[in-house]
Amino acid sequence: MSIQVLLADDHQMMRQGLKALLEREGITVVGETADGREAVLLSQTHNPDIAVIDISMRVLNGPDAAREIRRLSPRTKVVILTASAEDPNVLDALRSGVSGYILKTQAAEELVLAIRDVMRGCVYLSPSVSRAVVDAFRSGTDLPRDPLSPRERQVLRLVAEGLSTKEIATLLELSVRTTEAHRRQIRSKLNIHETASLVRYAIRRRLVEF
Amino acid sequence: MSIQVLLADDHQMMRQGLKALLEREGITVVGETADGREAVLLSQTHNPDIAVIDISMRVLNGPDAAREIRRLSPRTKVVILTASAEDPNVLDALRSGVSGYILKTQAAEELVLAIRDVMRGCVYLSPSVSRAVVDAFRSGTDLPRDPLSPRERQVLRLVAEGLSTKEIATLLELSVRTTEAHRRQIRSKLNIHETASLVRYAIRRRLVEF
DNA sequence: CGTCCATTCATGGGTTTCACCGATTTCCTC
DNA sequence: GAGGAAATCGGTGAAACCCATGAATGGACG
User: Fold this and answer.
1) B198 DSSP assignment
2) Contacts of A108 (CB under 8 A, 6+ apart)
3) The CATH number of the domain where A167 resides is what?
4) FRET partner for A17 with CA separation of 20 to 30 A, picked from A95, B194, B202, B208?
């Protein structure tokens, strides 16, 4: 039985490329998506050995998706993919209890290695990441973890992308009231009461691009 | 003789994946690099039909590399790869005289299509690139860097800082109606209709910090 | 088991923004 | 001097957002 993998990345091209490379190595890709939330669902339905997840995705980001997957599909190990070792969310990702952490700047062989290592129960950290993490700890450049819950972070991200409350509610399959409640909670926790400042906060936290 | 392609992208994983996909389509990858400057050199030595270049690279970015390649290896057509259609460098990239423009969020088939189109002498623009940008590009009318008047820029800055229309009016000693008119004019000129997106625009244009 | 918190949804009312319509004055350019 | 853009101001009504408060559920943690 070959290793079953789920792929989640914003870029379809990346997914297709990785899929081709992994399948050449005899690893089966049982599902793929651009959306962290869908990654959680696909993990439940396909129950893959490993979920390979990009750190920055639109609807639900890597670390939060990793937490959900660990909670709902404990059998599935999570390997995080990131574009940069300096991403301020690296530490957050590590705290979310992932089994592997790989840079996209590395060769695909690195990912294959990581997948095989994780299957044996090891934790695989890309060498450049370990360095970055240690440095971050030492220099204290790590941003303090924001006080938001995963749901609130998810909502904030969509707010910062310009979606209206109604649009967010539809996207997340919530009532408008609930979405409003999340927004209120966000404003109250951060003590930020204008949309514009929320957007700037989200950009600082790298919840969205700009 | 198959089509000869050069790949330039920060992420080795992406390059390897694309290479696998392109070669499956009978397209030959004659070289690859993470570095825009090296892409220029490789274009000279290998003289490929097409250089597929990521828009954001460390040493020399996509548009600038495209200009150099056109100057030094005029036979080689350039196709730009980008992560987002809202990248502030989209226009710059188009002005640099590329033959194709593709989003990484699209399927790899799109890239293959683009490569084949460009080989036939066509220009291939991903459909998701903003209408306004494409129009400006095609008509050669070269959008101004920032179409806003000084007053509008001033108002936008304050909007992005989180001030309400009323606060802005008071600060600038204007009527609320005038301030509203400015906001309306800004939205219409930029074709951006949510505050959140306006804030991101302002940050990109360095009108405000974040 | 009780407490805290996240998540969900609601009522009701106030504020702000937005879209569409209109206008005048000034100033620059062709 | 006609045309155009910038800057100034106004009305109206719909949509979106903000605020205070309340409350049910369920999971986590001591």
Assistant:
1) H
2) A18, A21, A22, B12, B13, B16, B17
3) 1.10.10.10
4) A95
User: Quick one: A129 and A197 in the same domain?
Assistant: no
Instruction: Locate the chain B residue with the closest alpha carbon to A84.
Output: B11
Residue of A nearest to B194 (CA): A162
A4-8 β-sheet, strand order? A28-33, A4-8, A50-54, A77-82, A100-103, A124-125
Count of domains observed in chain B: 2
pTM (predicted TM-score): 0.74
Q: DSSP assignment, residue B193?
A: -
Final residue of a domain: which of B139, B170, B189?
A: B139
pLDDT tens per residue, range A22-50 = 999 999 999 999 988 889 989 989 999 99
> Residue A170 belongs to what domain range?
150-204
End-to-end CA distance of chain B, in Å? 52
CA atoms of A69 and A8, how far apart (whole Å): 12
Domain at A33, CATH number: 3.40.50.2300
Tens place of pLDDT per residue across chain B (210 aa)? 799 999 999 999 999 999 999 999 999 999 999 988 899 999 999 999 999 999 888 667 787 788 889 888 999 999 999 887 766 567 667 777 788 889 999 999 999 999 999 999 988 888 766 554 555 555 444 444 567 888 898 899 899 999 999 999 998 889 999 999 999 999 998 899 999 999 999 998 878 888
**Cα–Cα distance list, B47 to A69, A72, A100 (Å):** 47, 52, 40
Which chain B residues are closer than 8 Å to A16 by Cβ?
17, 21, 107-108
B195 vs A196: CB contact, 8 Å cut-off?
Answer: yes
Instruction: Confirm if B172 and B154 have CB atoms less than 8 A apart.
Output: yes
Å between B205 CA and D10 C1'? 32
Q: Are A194 and A200 in contact (CB under 8 A)?
A: no
* Distance from residue A36's CA to nucleotide C8's C1', rounded to whole Å: 21
A108 close to B (CB below 8 A): yes
Distance, in Å, from the CA atom of B168 to the CA atom of B152, rounded to the nearest integer, reads: 12
Domain final residue, candidates A108, A139, A170: A139
Picking from B81, B107, B196, the nearest residue to A12 by CB comes out as B107
| B133 plus B174 within the same structural domain | no
* Shared-domain flag, residues A23 and A48: yes
Distance CA B111, CA B134 (A): 18
